[in-house]
Amino acid sequence: MPRPKKVVKEKKEKSKYIWQPHEGAQTEVLLRSEKEILFGGSRGGGKTDAGIAWMIEPEYVSNPAYRGLVLRLNATDLGDWLDRANRLYSHLGAKMTGQPAEITFPSGAKIRTGHLADEEAYNKYKGHEYQKILIEELTQISSESRYLKLLGSCRSTIPNLNAQIFCTTNPDGVGHMWVKKRFIEGKPVGRTFYAPEGSTRVFIPSSIEDNPSLLATPEYMQYLESIKETDPELYKQWRYGDWTSFQLKGSIYGDLIDKAYADNRITRFPIEPTIPVNGLWDLGMDDAMAIWLFQQVGREIRFVGYYENMDEPFSHYYDTLKEIGRDRNFTLGIQYIPHDGRVRELSTGVSRLSVLKDLFGDENVMLNMSEKAPIPAVHDGIEGVKRIINTSYFHSDFCEKGLDQLKMYRRKWNEKMNVYLKDPVHDEFSHCADALRTGATVLTPGSLGEWGKKVITPAQLNTLSNMTYYRKNPRELRRLVSRSIKNIRK
């Protein structure tokens, strides 16, 4: 059982409190002693006020050694939090100074604030010690690895001040999937989860019914109800804190992956030990290296694994794929790499294609298209990936991470025009999608698919004839041309 804590009730006068939590979820979350606390669900559940109060637990703010940290995605949202916090903290004699703000209490205790607008922001707290860290809107953090960097600074060498991290969220945003897996999926709601690494976590759900102050505001309830018809999925998330259905706005492949689940093409299936497993690579420079593993069984494409890492030599990926093959009882086949694999490294004068051929064997590494072929536009590659997802099978255990990342691959948002652009966002989810895009010029899954319904132009024929798949299978290309002629006659 968690140890009891004093709920924050600082007195302004003998008979008046300047703030006290509502009964229910808000009171419950302020009593928790787990290392990691997630509070939230629907909108209007009192998350922000609870976090503000949680940061000033009496035994902490009375200790001159106490250091807290409050983080939001951007400076604008942080400014709103500071305005609300100041209304409470000023009664305690706290002073705000600097940019970003630092809050100093009469005891000498300090709460620092910051934003998470770029990658460097996640590294700047390395080596720091904060007994309390508050992260507002956790699902705005795109990956668990970024969260873990911040969690590493949540520690305490101060007697009687336990280290905790308190996160608020709604079930939306780019980090939805990792937050759900870490705090909710398969975890007891409202009870302590003992993680394998020894840490403790808890998820305390809240809803607008837990916040009588806001529930009494008709305008806010009307606003929530107004989106029920226009965006029913968002309505379920915001009104009821529903984590079960989620589709990231602007997602390029999300609907297709949901359809693959519905079609039972994302499932467990045996890996054929007699058929080589090929790889589709995205070659990271300063980014992650991503590899999809697949078998071609008859006319079926079956993806049997996904691997990603960064800052590792090529020998690491060779050794890792070999180890995966031993564990899953398959042998490696051809490794397909994108066109930039032939670029020579400035430091060595050797191309990545040559390095990989030395490791896997000359005949087992191929560029995904010939040197003379025009480089396909990103949008063409995206359409190719859609055809792959639409007809392929994915091993549900071994491809889970890759599928999650594909769902997060999304189009850029134009704030001024309030529309999604054609171009995709380049971030940590791009590498997984780019590796699969290598396959758009390597394989044609299933039957003739969409190409069989088209009239092929001379320019498209030139591109197709340079694809690795059709260079290896000229009969398939002839079938496409024949089908195109029939379409012309129609």
Architecture overview:
It contains 19 helices and 20 strands. The protein is of the alpha/beta class and 490 residues long. It has three domains: 11-240, Rossmann fold (3-Layer(aba) Sandwich); 266-446, Nucleotidyltransferase, domain 5, CATH 3.30.420; 448-490. The strands form four sheets. Strands 5-6-7-4-8-9-3-11-10 form a nine-stranded mixed β-sheet. β14 (289-297) and β15 (300-309) form a beta hairpin. α2 crosses α4 (75-89) and α11 (254-262) packs parallel to α14 (378-391). It is elongated, with a radius of gyration of 27 Å.
Q: Residue share in helices?
A: 25-40%
> Could you tell me the mean pLDDT?
85
β-strand number: 20
Strand coverage percent: 15-25%
Major sheet details: 9 strands, mixed
Structural class of the helix and strand makeup? alpha/beta
Q: What value does the Rg take, in angstroms? A: 27 Å
* CATH level 1 name of the largest domain: Alpha Beta
| CATH level 3 topology of the largest domain | Rossmann fold
Number of domains: 3
| N/C terminus separation | 74 Å
- Unreliable stretches covering 5 or more consecutive residues: 1-15, 445-455
Count helical runs: 19
Name of the CATH homologous superfamily of the largest domain:
P-loop containing nucleotide triphosphate hydrolases
